[in-house]
Design brief:
The chain is mostly beta strands and 656 residues long. It contains 9 helices and 44 strands. Helices cover 11% and strands 40% of the residues. The protein binds (dicuprio-$l^{3}-sulfanyl)-sulfanyl-copper (RUQ) and dinuclear copper ion.
């Protein structure tokens, strides 16, 4: 559709056209789309495209006709992109990128006062970070099951945690403590989301100061932070959060106990050798220094007890955080160590909470620990010794049920509804399905290639669904058309209900490097369609005090500050002419007064780096200094209507 002679239409004619555009979507792209494939029978199509029966079966399991929806949504880390990716399953269609640690222009995320403040909250030592290394999303839980309300994510590089509210899929908070300098055991939630867990990866002096690397054992430390989540406010409450000092091992992934093990937290570690590199200084590189011992240490934390110790005030303030120091931890018996096979990576509590599966990168086994045995050893104070920091060590043999021979480089484990576990096997590039009951591998499916995390439907909750699993592969090699030396990641969807398991779909993901994801039943989510009432501040989740109603648009000057109270509605901004003087500070207060589903506008001023997304009902505030005189067109960036191109105006910056 093209309207080149709008002048010829009457006002009512325009209204009719506008309504038509709404119901038809955005004209031009939807014009004549003719299928390229010649009509033909299934058999002919298979021959033509070289498809096997298995290919067709796979296609039928993933193909989702227009208008049909997915059964599951997967929340995947966007890796270095610092954003989160929402993917429909089984179609593997990308539904959204949610801006989290990185500015995201489409959503106007990081380009206005509200979301700019969210990004600023994540500043470290006064420096604003514009990217993040996102690893592990964690959906909020109620009684150990995903409740579809929030999702938390971490930034490994800058030790940060973000809260995304699933009522509108918007990042509401970024939080960080200068106590630690990186994280990896994050984010994991306790079964009712009382706490969001963040543990450090690379030891450093607590609080972010300097200490000579030679003092590694004395001055460097790890830590775990228990961030208190306030469900009502939808925010983490730092004033009720606390941390525990940990020995300078490299703490890795973590998991919270559930059901039988609720109230306990498990964190594994590598580099119990406390090697710190020095390849030009006559010491071995970290990778070999850290791989000397046969066992590293699983950290077992009694969170209930730790919380009581924190509440009793037996803490020390470091970088504004209440920290339970190791000495207190040992006096109170809050932490125990337990051997785990060489260079472990994933620790995954079973759905009943009774056992934990730990896999070591340099060990071919998955080791199954029994929580009851561990608890018995702790209660009986049955130690094989203490580490140099005075933390008691429990006997390995007495704490396990057995080991399952999985293959080369087992990493992460998920569960299904039939008592099976699935473990990613990095070096072999397979996913192994094995029986929890008899610790035997049932079968393996090849993946392409170097699988890191895997995610099964609700696969780390108290009631996994089975059905689908996604292998999140780091390398793609020969899977897709060549696009230069930097290749996409490869998400592979696998049917785990079928026997044997069936690889269904390859989804290239041109963002690096997603680590973990969680897959939730789509019907558990119920996000809003529009913000109501119009004038909503999406960060405070309240109507904005600066919200603008139709007919109340105005421009107010207070000295050198010009406040512009503006509305947007198809297809104009009011006011559409804004006059200021060079040097004025301009405060734009824009409310999209639309309440129609999908009636989103954008607002941008060229050369001033001003941009925002105005979803129906959303209010944004944008502040900038008009430091260059000139004529600046502003316009709407979303093709919102037939008169979208006319949805424009002028900022006139007069010489002062
Ligand atoms: S972790 S691949 Cu990627 Cu953060 Cu196991
Ligand atoms: Cu509003 Cu285009």
């Amino acid at each position: 559709m093209r309207f080149t002679r709008m002048g010829a239409l009457s006002a009512s004619g325009i209204a009719v056209l506008l309504a038509a555009t709404v119901s038809m979507g955005c004209g031009p792209q939807q014009a004549t789309q003719v299928s390229q494939a010649p009509a033909s029978s299934t058999a002919e199509l298979m021959k033509q495209r070289g498809l096997t029966e298995a290919d067709v079966s796979a296609a039928l399991q993933t193909y989702t006709p227009t208008g049909k929806k997915d059964t599951y949504l997967t929340f995947a880390s966007g890796g270095h992109g610092g954003n989160m990716i929402v993917i429909g399953v089984p179609s593997m269609r990308i539904l959204k990128y949610v801006g989290v640690f990185t500015p995201e222009p489409w959503q106007g995320y990081g380009y206005g006062d509200q979301s700019g403040q969210v990004l600023k909250m994540g500043s470290r030592f006064g420096k604003e970070m514009t990217w993040g290394d996102m690893h592990h999303p964690a959906l909020s839980e109620t009684a150990g099951d995903y409740d579809g309300k929030f999702v938390f994510v971490n930034d490994k590089a800058n030790a940060r945690i973000a809260v995304v509210d699933l009522h509108d899929f918007v990042t509401k908070q970024i939080i960080t403590s200068q106590l630690i300098q990186s994280d990896h055991g994050a984010t994991f939630v306790t079964p009712n989301t009382e706490y969001v867990i963040e543990s450090s990866q690379y030891p450093a002096p607590l609080g972010g100061g300097y200490a000579p690397i030679e003092d590694f054992q004395e001055k460097y430390r790890g830590a775990v932070i228990f961030w208190k989540f306030d469900r009502e406010k939808g925010k983490i409450d730092p004033s009720n959060s606390f941390a525990m000092e940990l020995p300078p091992y490299m703490q890795d992934l973590a998991d919270a106990g559930k059901l039988a093990s609720e109230g306990w937290v498990f964190i594994n570690s590598f580099n119990t050798e406390m090697s710190y590199g020095g390849t030009l200084e006559g010491r071995p590189p970290m990778e070999s220094g850290a791989s000397q011992n046969d066992m590293d240490y699983l950290h077992i934390i009694d969170l209930k007890k730790a919380e009581a110790v924190y509440k009793a005030g037996k803490t020390k303030k470091i970088a504004g955080m209440d920290v339970i120091m190791l000495e207190t931890t040992n006096q109170e018996g809050l932490l125990h160590l337990l051997g785990e096979p060489k260079s472990p990576h994933g620790v995954d509590v079973t759905p009943d909470g009774k056992e934990l599966v730990i896999s070591g990168k340099l060990d071919t086994h998955g080791t199954v620990y029994v929580f009851e045995k561990i608890k018995g050893l702790i209660d009986a104070k049955k130690y094989i010794g203490k580490d140099q920091y005075g933390v008691p060590i429990l006997p390995f043999e007495d704490s396990i049920r057995g080991q399952v021979e999985i293959g080369l480089g087992p990493l992460h484990t998920q569960y299904d509804d039939k008592g099976n576990a699935y473990t990613s096997v990095f070096i072999e590039s397979t996913v192994a399905k094995w029986s929890l009951k008899d610790l035997k591998v049932i079968e393996k499916v090849k993946v392409h290639y170097n699988v890191g995390h895997i995610v099964a439907a609700e696969g780390d909750t108290v009631s996994p669904d089975g059905g689908y699993l996604i292998a999140m592969n780091k390398w793609a090699l020969d899977r897709f058309n060549k696009v230069g030396p930097l290749l996409p990641q490869n998400f592979q969807l696998i049917n785990i209900n079928s026997e044997p398991m069936q690889l269904l779909y390859d989804m290239p993901l041109p963002l690096g490097e997603p680590h973990y994801a969680q897959m939730i039943k789509a019907d558990k989510l119920d996000p809003v369609d529009v913000y109501k009432p119009a004038g909503f501040d999406v960060v405070t989740d309240k109507p904005s005090p600066d919200a603008v109603k139709a007919k109340e648009e105005r421009i107010e000057r207070e000295g050198k500050h010009v406040h512009v109270y503006m509305t947007s509605v198809r297809s104009h901004f009011t006011p559409d002419i804004v006059r200021v003087k060079k040097g004025d500070t301009v405060h734009l207060h824009i409310t999209n007064v639309e309440q129609a589903h999908d009636a989103t506008h954008g607002f941008t001023i060229g050369s001033y780096n001003v941009h925002s997304s105005l979803e129906p009902g959303k209010h944004v505030d944008i502040t900038f200094v008009a430091d260059r005189e000139g004529t600046f067109p502003f316009y709407c960036t979303e093709f919102c209507s037939a008169l979208h191109l006319e949805m424009a105006g002028y900022l006139l910056v007069e010489p002062s």
